[in-house]
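chain below, 313 aa
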Amino acid sequence: MTASATTIERFCTDDVPSSERLASWNRLLSELHREHVVVAPKPGVVFRRVMLRRSYGDVAITWVESSAAMVKVQPWDAAAPDDTAVVVQDAGMTDSVVASKQLRLHAGTSTLNTPQPVTLVYGETTRSILLKLPTARLAARVGDPARLVGTLAGASDAALLTSFLRTILAGEAPAHEPGWDEAISDVVLDLIAITYRHRPAAPPPAAPASERWQRTVREFVEHHLTDPELGASMLARRLGVSPRYVQMVFAGMATTASGYIRERRLEHAAQLLAGGRHAITDVAYQVGFADLSYFYRSFRKRYGISPKRYAAR
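prediction:
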């Protein structure tokens, strides 16, 4: 099993004895794609696999060429609960069973899967491209990706996506420039949205998704509370969703992004001021208030007394 040190990682079974290839490959998958397990190469066929991997920020692209085999894909919640997988058939044929639906992927077609079991049966010679990408960023473009599980996108619908993926896998990465990875990942996500454009626009978050997003935004706010730039725009940009989606999540918490952030900053300020050990100006800037007068007004409105009197109690 070999891997190159170029901009694209390359793995191949050719340098492994045929009797050891399956076990060797599954050991590799346990490190790189631990939800994938090759369970049954076709009888009488020498098992062979080649894999190329390249990542652009939080979007991972994997190209696989495989001899005939069956592969089981287990749920990947423990490893990456907020990822979605998109598969593009590059050549050959794959039979897929996902969400009790049977699909047959021919060259150029595409399908999508969220964390759940999948069975794949590869034809005689199969090449496929696997994308792993953040569900949040995809949801901002296509709505809830779970609605697309078991949907087969035809070759004409997926043509732009397939062509772009083949192009970036075929060549060396250009000299790295600021924002390059984010730009490429945005193009990939936009092309997936084009591929599934016949689906309805994103609805408001469903209850389970809303609860998950509420936890996500609360945790993000806690980790970035001292950043004066923290707000709906920053949350949207860093989480890969639209500002409107962020506001809908806070609306489900009966508040707004600015209201929630201000409340958490004031609560944190009150904790620091208790006992009079910290200077008021230092506390204001420490919790993310860039405007000292605004901090005084907000604190008095929230607690009924000035920060100075609160610290002196």
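The first helix runs from residue 21 to 32. The chain has eleven helices and ten strands.
thats it, cya
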